[in-house]
From TrEMBL:
SUPFAM superfamilies recorded: beta-lactamase/transpeptidase-like
InterPro entries recorded: Beta-lactam-related, Beta-lactam/transpept-like, Diverse_Enzym_Activities
Domain Beta-lactamase-related: 44-325
A Pfam family matched in the record: Beta-lactamase
Name of the featured protein: CubicO group peptidase, beta-lactamase class C family
Native species: Paenibacillus aquistagni
């Protein structure tokens, strides 16, 4: 780590928290050897404050899928129809007049290569904008019904194609529950919380569970129904301290055999609205030699961000981990830009 990195990190954090959009924030940076740890909080937040993981929770779902595969209880090549009722799925993926639903595999979902549309960005009925206006709940049946009203973007597994959609991971959650014979919350407990001794990380099951508020511009939103509905695609609550423990374990082979990672490192560019992000097997890849860094960066970031402002990324070139939260729905690209800046200064 550069001797001036701490000062550079502080400058970058102070700059982003000076925005009137950011009401609270936290960041934690550590190296893989445990020799370096730096953190900052803003607006009353620190590394033990609860935060909504949002789509970082997809890494939890990925962990469960890989652990079950390691046990021999499923294969990434398994058809989705092996685990979810045909009648419920029928008509989910109809592309150019041909039904592809029966061809959807666990791998298609994990790699965001199903071609299914994202109802939260593409549907007028159930979008992130609706959640900002009014808290509401939904379940997998709703997700499937809403998705059937939209057109897929390509046939499943089309080479070089990926399209980010939450339903991919909601369906994976249903697969995990079927295979493991438990709820997704219990699966997280079995495969993640217990092995890592996480005590402040949980998937809220009811509005009575503590669910942090989410900021949208100057508003502070309470969305317990919506967060409880996200489940396998991003409803988990954690802290920066415990998120760091998980992220190191995910990329360090403590939750599943790390030998599988090479099969996950097959990245395809996502839709234009996702910027420089490519998606592999359950996680994002962001190259640092891009227009956003004036092509001065090198290496890549691996991990995930959340639309609420959360982030969890590993920078293999420097063996550094970045986790935290900016808690701002109105600026979903900010956490990625922020981590890219931090990596450039490391």
């Amino acid at each position: 780590m550069k001797t001036h990195s701490a000062a550079a990190f502080t400058k970058a954090f102070d700059r982003i928290t000076q925005s009137h959009y950011i009401q609270e924030a936290v960041v934690l940076i550590e190296d893989s050897q445990g020799n370096y740890s730096w953190s900052r909080g803003y607006g009353g937040r620190d590394i033990d404050s609860p935060l909504l993981m949002a789509s970082i929770g997809k890494l939890f779902t990925t962990t469960c899928i890989l652990a079950l595969q390691e046990r021999g209880q499923l294969s990434l090549n398994d058809r989705l129809a092996m685990y979810i009722d045909d009648q419920l799925l029928s008509g989910l993926h109809v592309y150019q007049g041909r039904e592809y639903t029966s061809k959807l595999t666990v791998s298609d979902l994990l790699f965001q290569a199903s071609g299914l549309p994202d109802i939260f960005e593409e549907s007028k009925n159930a979008t992130n904008a609706r959640a900002i206006q009014q808290d509401f709940s939904y379940d997998l049946d709703d997700m499937i019904r809403w998705t059937k009203q939209l057109k897929p973007h390509f046939a499943p597994g089309t080479k070089g194609k990926a399209h980010y959609a939450d339903i991919n991971f909601d369906l994976l959650g249903a697969v995990i529950e079927k295979v493991n014979g438990t709820t997704i919350a219990d699966a997280y407990e079995e495969f993640i919380y217990r092995p890592l001794k996480l005590t402040s990380t949980y998937l809220p099951l009811s509005v009575d569970d503590h669910i942090p508020s989410i900021c949208y511009k100057e508003q502070r939103l309470n969305l317990p129904l919506f967060v409880c509905s996200c489940r396998a695609s991003g409803g988990t609550i954690t802290t920066a301290r415990e998120l760091m423990i998980f992220l190191k374990a995910f990329f360090g082979g403590k939750l599943f055999n790390s030998a599988v990672m090479h099969t996950l490192a097959q990245y395809n560019r996502l839709q234009l609205t996702m910027g420089p992000i490519r998606y592999g097997g359950g996680y994002m890849r962001i190259g640092l030699q891009t227009l956003l860094t004036a092509f001065r960066g090198s290496g890549e970031l691996l991990g995930h961000s959340g639309t609420s402002g959360s982030f969890a990324f590993y920078y293999p070139k420097k063996e550094i981990f970045f986790v935290g939260d900016l808690n701002q729905l109105a600026k979903p690209s900010w956490p990625i830009r922020f981590v890219m800046q931090l990596a450039m200064k490391a």
